[in-house]
Amino acid sequence: MGLFDEAARTWDLKLPRVETARKVGEVILSSVPVSKGWRVLDFGAGTGLLTFFLAPHVSEIVALDTSTGMIEVLREKVEKLGARNVKPLQGSYGDFKFEAPFDLIVSSMSVHHVKDVEGLFRWFSSNLKRGGYVAIADLLKEDGTFHSDNTGVYHFGFDREEFESYMVSAGIESVSFNIVHSIEKNGREYPIFLSVGQKV
Predict the structure, then answer these.
(1) What is the CATH number of the domain that holds 115?
(2) What residues have CB less than 8 Å from 21, skipping those under 6 apart?
């Protein structure tokens, strides 16, 4: 995760990243019946762009990321903003089994960095309340040109059928799949989808 550690300090300076997190956050709030009493997990939280957007709307949000550098920046933001309901957590998803399940698990632009997506969704399901939601944003299938360096990139985006099959295999029923944003790069547009599911 060296690339992310190095990039952490300047991560929020790239406006398309900030805009993507804001747009994803807005659509999550309009697509899922988020409640002030909910506990939420943000998977691959990075510096917390999506975490802090959602934090005022929920009781607690655990921000999980493998990158030490990203979590350091996120912790500094928590201190600066006094965001007591944001809980930074550094490590790989496989390291954790939470005592209390979550009402909602979110993620933005992180799942394409996970090799075993089917295993990830099983882990999501095991840490989700029955009736709880997942809301995952990522790249629609692309040709591998989105990243200038594909180190640590295991999937060049996803198509709808593939992504929803990961959910279904983990006992999560698809609720919606919509293109919610796009990122302009390399003289072209890369669509970003939001896939929402509910544990059955």
Answers:
(1) 3.40.50.150
(2) 49, 50, 53, 108
CA distances (Å), 40 to each of 27, 30, 115, 134, in order?
16, 16, 23, 10
The whole domain housing 147 covers 2-199
Number of domains in the chain: 1
Alpha carbon of 77 to those of 26, 40, 72, 88: distances in Å?
21, 18, 9, 10
- Judge whether 47 and 75 are in contact, CB under 8 Å: no
How far is 149 from 155, CA to CA, in rounded Å?
Answer: 13
The CA distance from 38 to 91, in Å, is 23
For residue range 145-182, list pLDDT tens digits in order. 999 999 999 999 999 999 999 999 999 999 999 999 99
Q: What are phi and psi of 146, to 5 degrees?
A: -60, -45
Take residue 141 and report the two structure tokens written for it.
């299938």
Alpha carbon distance 57, 101 (integer Å): 18
Residue 147 CB-density burial (10 A; 0-12 exposed, 13-18 middle, 19+ buried):
middle
Q: What is the pTM of this model?
A: 0.93
End-to-end alpha carbon distance in the chain: 34
